[in-house]
Amino acid sequence: MAGKHSVSLCFMTVPEFCTWARIGRTKTYEEIKAGKLRAFKVGRKTLIDVRDAGKWADEQPDLILWRTPEEVFGMESPDGA
Hints:
Elements: E1 11-13, H1 14-21, H2 25-33, E2 40-42, E3 45-49, H3 50-58, H4 69-73
Antiparallel strand pairs: 1-3, 2-3
């Protein structure tokens, strides 16, 4: 049962992001280091919010994505839609 303070958040790991964005791990970490892609650590994992992934993708002129992160990984949309 969802309480009044429940929050729905969706995150991707770096390997999941690489699969979705069709870029390599090294390029992903370069984008993070350059500040073009926001990520944070939880323990040993680096996580990327799907909303930040979408914003990053919108800024890539040559990137063609056929599906959203939610469609690729079966996640619920962060906005609850």
